[in-house]
């Protein structure tokens, strides 16, 4: 709940720290928006992969490819100074969702 100074039209302007925090948050919001767009594009492509696999009787999952991707992205995470455990959990979540879509495509649904 806002304090009384927030509601007072005669209150002094926000501190410089508040402006800095707002700037940080705008940057985070922009990055979040970019992540959503990137994920949407990734899922459009994996949907096409799922449809291709279904049409060609290929299995929904490719464990060898998953292992390679996880190792590759863990290395990228380390280079970027991002926790590789976090990156692996994030990628595993995405891979599991993609596999679920591919299984649905194999069963005759949309990938």
Structure, explained:
The protein has 111 residues and is mostly helical. It has one domain (16-106): Up-down Bundle (Chorismate Mutase Domain, subunit A). Helix content is 76%, strand content 0%. It is built from four helices and no strands. It has helices at residues 4-7, 16-55, 63-79, 84-106. α2 (16-55) packs parallel to α4 and α3 runs antiparallel to α4. The longest helix is centred in the first third of the chain and has 40 residues, at 16-55. The radius of gyration is 22 Å and the shape is elongated. Residues 1-6 have low confidence and may be disordered. This is chorismate mutase. One of its GO terms (molecular function) is chorismate mutase activity. It comes from Pelagerythrobacter marinus. Its EC number is 5.4.99.5. It holds the Pfam family CM_2.
In a nutshell, what does this entry contain?
By secondary structure, the protein is mainly alpha-helical.
């Amino acid at each position: 709940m806002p304090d009384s100074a927030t509601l007072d039209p005669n209150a002094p302007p926000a501190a410089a720290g508040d402006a800095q925090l707002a700037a940080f948050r705008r940057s985070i919001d922009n990055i979040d928006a970019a992540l959503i767009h990137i994920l949407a594009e990734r899922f459009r492509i994996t949907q096409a992969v799922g449809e291709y696999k279904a049409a060609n009787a290929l299995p929904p999952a490719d464990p060898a490819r998953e292992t390679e991707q996880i190792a590759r992205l863990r290395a990228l995470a380390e280079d970027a100074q991002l926790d590789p455990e976090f990156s692996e959990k994030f990628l595993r979540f995405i891979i599991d969702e993609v596999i679920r879509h591919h299984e649905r495509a194999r069963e005759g649904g949309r990938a």
